[in-house]
Amino acid sequence: MKKEDFLFIDFETASPVDIKTAGAWLYAKEAHVLLISYRFSTDKAQQVKTVKNFGRKPLTPRDIPDDLKKWRGPVVAHNWSFEHAIFTHCLPFLKHFADPSVYICTASTARRYGLPGALDDAARSLKLKNQKEKADGSKLINKYSKPNKNGGFNPITKEDAKKWVSYGGADVLTMEELFYTFPRLDLDAFEGPVFRLDQKLNLAGLRVDRAAVTRIKKAYELIVSRAQVEAKTLCGVEASGALTVVSPIGFTRWLENEGERVPNAQAATLDELLLKTKNTRVAAAIKLRQTLAAAGPKKLESLLSFSDLLGVVRHSFFYFGGHTGRWSGRGFQPQNLVRLVAENWQETFDALVKGIGGVDEVNSLLRGCIIPRKGNRFVVGDFSAIEARGLFYLAGCASGLAVFREGRDIYKEQAGRFYNKRADAVEKSERQIGKAQILGLGYGMGAGRFIDYARTYGVELTAPEAEAAVRMYRGGFPEVPRLWRDLETAFRLALRDGVAVVGDGFRRLAFRRSADKRFMRLTLPSGRAMYYFRPRIADGDLVVSLPRGGIQKLWGGVICENVVQAYCRDLMAASMLAADAAGLQIVGTVHDEIIAEAKTSAAKKSVAVLERCMTTPPDWARGFPLGAECAIMDRYGK
Predict the structure, then answer these.
(1) From residue 332, how far is each of 328, 337, 370, 415, 475 by CA, in Å?
(2) Which pLDDT does position 275 carry in this prediction?
(3) Is the Cα torsion angle 16, 19, 25, 28 positive or negative in sign?
(4) What are the two backbone dihedrals, phi and then psi, of residue 633, each rounded to the nearest 5 degrees?
(5) Which of 55, 182, 346, 490 could be bridged to 500 by S-S, CB 3.0 to 4.6 A?
(6) Is residue 254 a contact partner of residue 273, using CB atoms and an 8 Å limit?
(7) Separation of alpha carbons 352 and 368, rounded Å
(8) Which residues are paired to 377 by β-bridges?
(9) In what order do the strands lie in the sheet with 551-554?
(10) How much of the chain, in percent, has pLDDT values that exceed 70?
(11) What is the mean pLDDT of the chain?
């Protein structure tokens, strides 16, 4: 990469706010800057400049060097959202740095290439010349960036100040080397605009109904209190004082005394036992354990801790959170919200705060705690079976695509084949086996795993039935297993020969091994590439290195899953860009959904715009049978 003029910068800070439970934005509001480490690309090699503030005073324009105050170029940071938040709240007089569009994020680039997001881990993976010692930095942060047990901050010794200057300098040099290792993310024809839109939606944030969350939390605490009393009466306590019902070993023993022998107290095991047991005491105990172990209600505390006093929570969506480019959640983790949604949110809420209801009712209210800003309504679009459509499209499966193009119910048709009846005669409960097949068998799942997978749809299968279902799927859509084989063959050929291609036209998937053999680049029809780090053959197996260490074995089904999810992510991103260009304010994306806000008076028009954006394929996906359900909401739902 040609060296242009860039600013590389890193902050060391302290704040009474815990960044893990409040996020960078709220952390920065109460933070003070201890050290600024920076260099310009035109500076002498290895030269790092500093602004030291170990006395913890508020910084003023007089404390900032002229070269920083006068800078108007691009800013390279690792985890741009942190540096942006610090500039915005701690150095508000440096207006240039409040603009998110000036930032280039090396952490996002690292994740895009299948590397760890943490700077030190990415540097070690690439064996960069400049590396930092994570342990040294963690010691300094724990000692000086967090409040001590008295609520104050420890004075920084001269010796540790020198260590911190050295640590900050290493950060900047490592970041610069990482930056020059890869092409610029912000200049990528497809991904650059997606990254900028991610910045925009994360800064807009989501609004939390803090008043409702507070009341639901209080109701939940009463539910837990009652459950603890009932659990103690029913099951007793352990020698340690812990309730038997929450102790895996203790509860397994108690169940055995009740005549129910189980291998463990895991959720899946107990769910199955709850369906089968005729012992009312056992059923009651399992429900109590589920109440006390429920993960969903723990979101209530996160919704409060990550939102400001106006209810706004920022940076909840993690760009390139997965290898395929999909967004993941952070903060209160919107991607992991319980899918259960109250049929009538207000009625359920009113009953719960009066003491009527349990954990299921609490869970059903969680999504609805996300609300639009005053005067706005949510406009939410959800792609219909986009992965199944994407798989059939890339595989060139005409029969599967025809079902979607003609608006038929593919789940009913598949269930009809399984039960040997017409699709229009398939009952609602029977439809579930078709759904399980279409959504579960596209990436090579075998009969054994399919038994467990089908159970998540309420379908119990014998081994012969599961084997028949797998044969039926693969035989009915033979292009799909052919795609598995073609993708694995191409990956192996590219390792040997450097390049290989699967498909053509709008289904073209191109493999190219990097010259240094560190990466396998898989270019998608969108033009965006997905990367595998350190691909190789080991004992005959195709393996790649994982971002968090270790290896993953690849075969056609896994590669196919990666490709389809990445392709569908790009369809999502293209729809988001189109909606943004049409004037909609995108505030989030959860799984296959796009969440936007619109003025109440413009909501009907906006929902039509969103539907058009989500059902019009981009040029690189011509003929793709997109489908989406769009709705206007006053509270986020499903």
Answers:
(1) 11, 9, 11, 38, 43
(2) 86
(3) positive
(4) -135, 145
(5) 490
(6) no
(7) 14
(8) 598
(9) 499-502, 509-513, 519-523, 529-538, 541-545, 551-554
(10) 99
(11) 92
Q: What's the pLDDT tens digit per position in 289-339?
A: 988 887 777 889 999 999 999 999 999 999 998 889 999 988 888 988 888
Would you state the structure tokens that stand for residue 281, as one six-digit string? 């005491």
Which amino acid, 621? A
C-alpha distances (whole Å) from 487 to each of 114, 334, 397, 560, 589 are 19, 33, 16, 7, 29
- What letter would DSSP give residue 280? H
Question: Is residue 585 classed as helix, strand or coil in its secondary structure?
Answer: strand
pLDDT band at 1 (very low <50, low <70, confident <90, very high): very low
Burial letters 154-166, b for 16+ CB under 10 A, else e: eebeeebbebbbe
Q: Residue 44 has what DSSP assignment? A: P
Where are the extended beta strands (E) located within 228-365? 312-313, 317-318, 328-329
Per DSSP, what are the bridge partners of residue 585? 597
3-state SS of 104-130? Answer: EEHHHHHHHCCCCCCHHHHHHHHCCCC
pLDDT at 592: 93
Tell me which residue of 558, 582, 585 sits closest to 206, measured CA to CA: 585
- Residue 232: how many CA atoms within 13 Å on its side-chain side? 9
Average pLDDT, integer, range 412-430? 91
Tokens of 424: 């229009």
Strand pairing of 75-77 and 103-105? parallel
628 touches 601 (CB < 8 A): no
Average pLDDT of the segment spanning 604-612: 96
The per-residue pLDDT for 135 is 65
pLDDT at 276: 87
Contact 452, 266 (CB under 8 A): no
Q: How far is CA 237 from the centre of its chain?
A: 38
The structure tokens listed for 266 are 């895991």
| Integer CA distances (angstroms), 535 to 79, 510, 516, in order | 27, 15, 11
d(CA 120, CA 318): 19
State how far the alpha carbon of 295 is from the alpha carbons of 338, 363, 366, in Å. 9, 9, 12
pTM of the model: 0.90
**Nearest in space to 369 (alpha carbons), one of 347, 330, 337, 343:** 337
Helix (H, G, I), strand (E, B) or coil at 481: helix
Report pLDDT for 2.
44
Bridge partners of residue 544, in order along the sequence: 552
Residue 341 is encoded by which pair of tokens? 């949604």
At 390, list the tokens: 């994407």
